[in-house]
């Protein structure tokens, strides 16, 4: 889930969240090594099990993610998934007090246990349209405050479940628009674009995400500009890639 909150004074809060509670690795270097290990073998078309085993042996920090992945089901609906910031950020209050936080968007729609269709690559989009035809969808923005000793620089480690959580509001989704021409397409959802009062933490993944998203944005918009029937990227969106 990617969101942009626009304030009246022109400041923005952008966030890109994932439907998993922890990340496999803690650093950009380890993530690059993971991608290399997952490259399909030319002979089999699948990742080499020995390379994967060697990677996991060298990166025990992947244990929490791997445990989650063993029981996680493929998503049957965007509406019933919750989404995590993964990285930590720092909120500063009016009194100047700083608080390390993570947040998540918790779905209000209950998971009905339905299995993801096996042969429909667009079932999530179709399900979203169908659900919206029956009414708006809701998520609660829950902000968790770190306790003493909770890591802010390691997205592989979940914070204890008893940490204080603040209900910061409700996200209401009441309509959908095409991805190739809608208003979200030309936005770089860089998670380091933040308003006053919110700052990045010492998590090394955040600056790496910012750089990767900028490069991805430039590549994506340059390719889309040449697709038949695709609306050209809006002029005002172009400078975002420099952020």
UniProtKB/TrEMBL annotation:
Signal peptide: none
GO cellular component, one term: cytoplasm
One GO term of the biological process aspect: response to hydrogen peroxide
One of the record's GO molecular function terms: heme binding
Alphabetic keyword roster: Heme, Iron, Metal-binding, Oxidoreductase, Peroxidase
Transmembrane segments: none
Thylakoid keyword on record: no
InterPro entries: Catalase, Catalase_core, Catalase_sf, Catalase_SrpA-type_pred
Pfam families noted in UniProt: Catalase
Protein name: Catalase-domain-containing protein
């Amino acid at each position: 889930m990617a969101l942009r909150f626009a304030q009246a004074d022109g400041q923005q809060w952008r966030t890109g969240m994932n439907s998993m509670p922890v990340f496999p690795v803690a650093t950009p270097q380890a993530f690059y090594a993971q991608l290399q290990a997952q490259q399909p073998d030319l002979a089999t078309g699948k990742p080499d099990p020995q390379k994967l085993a060697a990677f996991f042996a060298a990166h025990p920090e992947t244990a929490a993610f791997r445990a989650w992945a063993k029981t996680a089901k493929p998503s049957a609906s965007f509406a019933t998934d919750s989404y995590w910031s993964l990285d930590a950020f720092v909120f500063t209050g009016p009194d100047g007090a700083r608080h390390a936080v993570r947040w998540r968007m918790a779905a209000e729609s209950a998971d009905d246990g339905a299995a993801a269709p096996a042969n429909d690559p667009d079932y999530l989009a179709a399900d979203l349209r169908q659900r919206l035809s029956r009414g708006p969808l809701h998520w609660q923005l829950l902000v968790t405050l770190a306790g003493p000793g909770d890591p802010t620089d390691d997205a592989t480690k979940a914070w204890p479940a008893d940490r204080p959580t603040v209900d910061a509001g409700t996200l209401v989704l009441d309509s959908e628009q095409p991805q190739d021409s809608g208003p979200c397409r030309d936005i770089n959802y860089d998670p380091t674009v933040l308003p006053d009062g919110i700052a990045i933490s010492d998590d090394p993944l955040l600056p790496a995400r910012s750089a990767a998203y900028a490069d991805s944005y430039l590549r994506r918009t340059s390719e889309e500009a040449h697709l038949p029937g695709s609306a050209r990227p809006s002029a005002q969106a172009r400078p975002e890639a420099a952020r």
